[in-house]
Amino acid sequence: MSERTATVAIYPGSFxxxxxxxxxLVRRALHFVDSVIVAVAHRRTQHKDGMFSIGERLxxxxxxxxxxxxxxxxxxxxxxxxxARQQDAxxxxxxxxxxTDFEYEFQMALMNRQLWSELETLFLAPDARYTFxxxxxxxxxxxxxxxxxxxxxxxxxxxxxxxxxxxxx
Length: 169
Ligand code: PNS
Fold this sequence. Notes:
This protein is of the alpha/beta class. It has helices at 20-29, 43-46, 54-64, 80-87, 99-115, 135-143, 154-164; strands at 8-13, 35-41, 71-76, 91-95, 120-124. Strand 4, helix 5 (99-115) and strand 5 (120-124) form a beta-alpha-beta unit.
């Protein structure tokens, strides 16, 4: 009997912080892959400043998937294709929220495939409730005292409140 090789997908991103949209995407991916590596891109790799440290983001992601052994969270530095090769993972998952995401995502997918021809990118549509959601908007709204409780899980909300004070987020 031939053994089926486990399908591992990498879900890369900033996750600053993880939102309900990200969580939804991971759970959707788990319907057809054996495990998902949620890979937080290191700041030096991304050339942009973040709000939460990489360690804090990883801790929040791990709390989101504390009930799910098939999800691991890790950071990576450098090219995504190099990280994927190290992990022996040939599948990237990314969310496509709207047409505005398409150009950037399509360019990244084709560039990654140019760098490693065996790497495929699979785009998933999030739940319609989260199509307008982005971590950058969550950060901005929380920092200005808006209510983001419908957009992030309770532990992420608590982290935002700790950052901005209880009158905020
Ligand atoms: O959540 P984001 O910020 O849209 O994620 C972007 C991310 C981390 C997926 C992208 O910047 C990335 O893959 N960075 C790693 C460096 C790399 O491989 N760059 C070339 C991409 S074609």
